[in-house]
Every structure is written in C-alpha cells, then in structure tokens.
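Problem 3 from the worked examples.
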Amino acid sequence: MTRLSSGQNAGNYGGGSTGMPQNIWLQLARKGDIFSSSYSINGSDFTIYKEITKTLPGTVDVGLAVASYTGGTASASFSNFSVVNTVPEPSTYALFALGALALVVAYRRRVA
C-alpha cells in the first residue's frame, strides 16, 4: 500500500500477492531514494517483493495500516514493530585522517 503524494488516498499500486501465509514478517528498507519491501516466512530469510525510487526528505514518518478491499471492516494485529536508523561505519580513510589530524593538533600544542 502506498500514497503517491501528500494528501492523496493510499492505494495498492504495486499489485497484491495471493497465497501468502497469515503470519509473515515484513521489512521496509531505505537507501537514499530507493525503498524496498521484503517479506519472510521465518523472520530471517527475506525475499524482496518490490523496489521503488522516490525522492523524499531525509526524515519521514512511518506507521502501520490495514485495509479491506471488499468494503467491509478490516482488523489486524501487529507485533515486534521497530524503526531502526542504521548509520554506516566510518571508512578506514576517514579514521586515518581523523587520527592524523589529532597528531597535528597535538604536535602544534607541544611546539607552541
């Protein structure tokens, strides 16, 4: 389910899946402007369902929703929901440059 732009109704623009088990793990990941949705039957082996490219601000709101496509009432139970902000580890070159800068500062303090 996606919302194409702010203020629009949400809809299923990617097509639905049939034959999915009732209890599955869902994962939404973002890398830059690429969003991927994945699912897993066992919680550890994820299969990518769809990827889209969408330019959004660096910070976005996330949430869970359920919809009934038959016009009736829908209900769902969500558990183990979390939002994880992963920060990439600094590169070896960045750490080397930081160490070199610290040495220069220490040397200048000693000379002055």
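Problem 4, a separate protein:
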Amino acid sequence: MHLIDPNHQVVATQKVKTNSFGSAPGEFLIPQGRLLGLWQVMTLSPQGGASVRVEEYKRPTFEVTLKEPKEALTKAGAHVVRSPADMGTKMREIPGK
C-alpha cells in the first residue's frame, strides 16, 4: 500500500495482508508541512485505491453586536438574546445568565 501526495510522489509504503473479503487494515499519517490537496492510498496487487482531500482547517470567526436592551437587565432574571445571524444559517436562541 502506498501513500501518494498531490505531486504523485510516494510518501510512505506499508505491507498489508488482505483478508478473505479482500480488505486490509492499515493507516498512514500525512507528515506535517506537506502539500495540501488530493492525496491517494494505492495498492498494486490487486490494483485499487482511495483518495482523500487534505485541507487546512480554519476556525470560523464571527462578531456579535447587540442593541441596548429596552429595559434594565437584572442578575436574578432570565434573559433571552435574539439576534440575526449573518453566516447563512439561523442562530438558535441562547438563554443568557
């Protein structure tokens, strides 16, 4: 089994033995700092493989802006904050403390 990077270079190789169903256990770790993009796991005999897209994870950021409350808030009271979300999805109501 071979791990192949987006430039079609073999990055790692691993010997595996198939079971009676033709599948084989194995795992590869993609080294840090390598190219992002379409990686492949390939076998030569029998010929086969699978692809996985490796992308950088970017934590989403957002800003919440609230208007002044119409009435004073108290520590003891329960408050519900409603605000439109501008992220393409609806925000659920989040009870305040």
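Solution to problem 4. The CA atoms of residues 69 and 97 lie 15 Å apart. The chain has no helices and six strands.
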